[in-house]
Amino acid sequence: MSAPNKSYDPVAVAALSPGEVQRVLDEALAAIATAGTLDELKAARLAHAGDRAPITLANAEIGALPPAARAEAGKRVGAARAAIRAALAARQDELEAERDRRVLVEEAADVTLPWDRRPAGARHPVTTVAERLADVFVAMGYEVAEGPEVEDEWYNFDALNFPPDHPARETQDTFFVAGPASAADTGTAGSGVVLRTHTSPVQIRAMLTRPLPLYVVSPGKCFRSDTLDATHSPVFHQIECLAVDEGLTMADLRGAITAFVDAMFGEGLRTRLRPDFFPFTEPSVDVSMECHVCRGASTRPGGEPCRVCRSQGWIEIAGAGMVNPRVLVACGVDPDRYSGFAFGLGIERTLMIRHGVTDIRDTVEGDVRFSRAFGMEA
């Protein structure tokens, strides 16, 4: 076996000669510098730094050199490869920065423009006012009670002391879903099914199903055979308050009304009770409050006319009274031990008084411009 060729000249290997290594390095640096895109730079990387690149193949030939020649050739090729890698990394950073700048310009979005062409909606003000009214009484310890909108005539009229010949039980005032059933069918001769005309049936159901003492408030939708105009609607909303306990008097009723007026229209407004009649309360009263706009100033000499109260100084807001003992008996409540008070008001009317709405039709026409004026108040 012959000894290693220690006199081997690395210049004799063309790929490892200084001139060839420099030529390969210059070509690689030129290709890298002229790469205008990341894809072109990728192609230059494969051509000049990949597994089949000239400088890589030259590096593979170093192992065939004698030990004395390997160090010089390794330094020469290693320096060239390092220069190529550095040039690739630098050009990569430049092209990525250029791409990012171009994206910012070409794909810029004006975040101040509306993101949705459809206008934002709002909660319906009737819902908002109903929840605010309920919250007033919930804060005083009342519970919210609910009931069906399609109601038995017994709950809607009979239990509330409406006599059989009362005008409200005629079709010109009430929507009947089904006529009176026969006694053989249901055992309740003379009772039909109606769209409830008020939320008072919820109070009857509450007295029949809940333990005493009882403090409930019942907001909900009601139906009456009215023609839709500026102040009437066949579909409207009411909220009624009922309290049944031992020792309740008109003074308690007056206190609940005052708390309601203070919460909804501002503190300091006077309230007025005048005699009235309702079948389900005795005595019954009409509840008025001092005008929250002019506070009675429009009734004094020289006062400016008030459109809200029509310069009368008072606004009618609710009907109220002590629960009729006959209603208590119908619900199985002992009238000698318990007494109660109740009052109810229209939610649309409260909305109109509170916010100056002049036409109730605005609340049912579904125009989002009307609801949007009230915003998203919770």
Helix and strand arrangement:
Elements: H1 18-34, H2 38-49, H3 54-60, H4 67-106, H5 125-138, E1 143-144, E2 150-152, H6 153-156, E3 176-178, H7 183-186, E4 193-195, H8 200-209, E5 214-223, E6 235-245, H9 250-265, E7 271-278, E8 281-290, E9 314-323, H10 325-330, E10 339-346, H11 347-355, H12 368-372
Parallel strand pairs: 1-5
Antiparallel strand pairs: 2-4, 3-4, 5-6, 6-10, 7-8, 8-9, 9-10
Report the order of strands and helices: HHHHHEEHEHEHEEHEEEHEHH
- The CATH topology annotation of the largest domain reads as BirA Bifunctional Protein, domain 2
Low-confidence stretches: 1-5
CATH superfamily of the largest domain: Bira Bifunctional Protein, Domain 2
CATH class of the largest domain, please? Answer: Alpha Beta
User: Got a strand count?
Assistant: 10
Helical percent range? 25-40%
**How many structural domains does the protein architecture include?**
2
The strand order across the widest sheet is 1-5-6-10-9-8-7
Quick description:
It is built from twelve helices and ten strands. The chain has helices at residues 18-34, 38-49, 54-60, 67-106, 125-138, 153-156, 183-186, 200-209, 250-265, 325-330, 347-355, 368-372; strands at residues 143-144, 150-152, 176-178, 193-195, 214-223, 235-245, 271-278, 281-290, 314-323, 339-346.
Provide an overview of this structure:
A hairpin with a 2-residue loop joins strand 7 and strand 8 (281-290). The model is unreliable at 1-5 (pLDDT under 50). This protein folds into 2 domains: 10-106; 125-372, BirA Bifunctional Protein, domain 2 (2-Layer Sandwich). It has 378 residues and is an alpha+beta fold. It contains 12 helices and 10 strands.
